[in-house]
Amino acid sequence: MDMQIRCFSRVAVFLTIAGLAAAGGCARKTQALFTQPELITRGRLAVLGLTPEQDQIFMASYTKAFPGQIITFVERSQLMGILSERDLLRGRLDDRARNRIKQILDVEAVIIGTYYDGDSGKGDKKLSVRIVDSSNGVIVGSVITEGHDNFAYHCDRAVRALKADIQSGSR
Question: What is the pLDDT of residue 120?
Answer without folding.
Answer: 62
